[in-house]
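Quick review question:
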C-alpha cells in the first residue's frame, strides 16, 4: 500500500480509516442501536457505500510529493472507521463541550468546542443545508510523550473527504501531509443517488 511505504503505519491507518463519501436514503442503523446521531450517520454511510460501491480518486500530498490513484471499489468499512470513533457523546463523558448554533435561511452550522485544551477532540463542526448534513469537520489533537499530532478531518456526503495531518515525533523532524478523496463515478454524481 502506498501509505505504508511512504508514511509508515500511521499513514496507512489514516488512509484506511478516513474515507467519507456518500449518504443513503435508508436508515440501516437505528437510534436504539447507536445513540450518537453522527456515529449513526457514519455507520449508515458505510453500509450505503458498501452496497453501491462508487469509485473514488485519492490524492496524497506530502511536501512536494503528490500521488494520485483511482479506485473502482473500496472497502468502505475500513476507510470510514476513524470517523465513527470521534463520537461527541463519548468525549462528553470526559470533557465539557460548548455548543453553538449559527443559522441563516436554509444554512445552519453547529459547533461543539471542547473547553479543555487537552481534550483529544477539540471541535466538531456540522453544517446543515436544508436540514441535511452537508459538511462534517473534526479538529483533533493527539498528544503523548513520543508524538504530537494535529488532524483536521472534513467530510462531505456523496462528495468526498479531506484530511490534513501535522506530526511532530521525538525520533523525526516535523512533517505534514494531506489526503483528499473524491467520488469519481460521474453517473453516480449526475443521478444524485
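Suggested answer, residue by residue:
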Amino acid at each position: 500500500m502506498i501509505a505504508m511505504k511512504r508514511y509508515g503505519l500511521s499513514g496507512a491507518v489514516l488512509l484506511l480509516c478516513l474515507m467519507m463519501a456518500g449518504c443513503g436514503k435508508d436508515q440501516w442503523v437505528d437510534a436504539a442501536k447507536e445513540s450518537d446521531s453522527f456515529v449513526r450517520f457514519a455507520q449508515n454511510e458505510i453500509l450505503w457505500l458498501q452496497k453501491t460501491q462508487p469509485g473514488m480518486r485519492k490524492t496524497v500530498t506530502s511536501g512536494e510529493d503528490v500521488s494520485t490513484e483511482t479506485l473502482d471499489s473500496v472497502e468502505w468499512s475500513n476507510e470510514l472507521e476513524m470517523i465513527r470513533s470521534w463520537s461527541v457523546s463519548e468525549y462528553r463523558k470526559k470533557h465539557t463541550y460548548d455548543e453553538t448554533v449559527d443559522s441563516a435561511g436554509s444554512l445552519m452550522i453547529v459547533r461543539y468546542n471542547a473547553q479543555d485544551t487537552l481534550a483529544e477532540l477539540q471541535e466538531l463542526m456540522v453544517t446543515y443545508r436544508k436540514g441535511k448534513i452537508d459538511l462534517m469537520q473534526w479538529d483533533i489533537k493527539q498528544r503523548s510523550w513520543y508524538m504530537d499530532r494535529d488532524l483536521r478531518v472534513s467530510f462531505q456526503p456523496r462528495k468526498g473527504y479531506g484530511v490534513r495531518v501535522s506530526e511532530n515525533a521525538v525520533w523525526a523532524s516535523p512533517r505534514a501531509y494531506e489526503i483528499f478523496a473524491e467520488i469519481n463515478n460521474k453517473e453516480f454524481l449526475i443521478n444524485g443517488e
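Why it works: Residues 1-35, 188-193 have pLDDT under 50 and may be disordered. The first strand starts at residue 56 and ends at 62.
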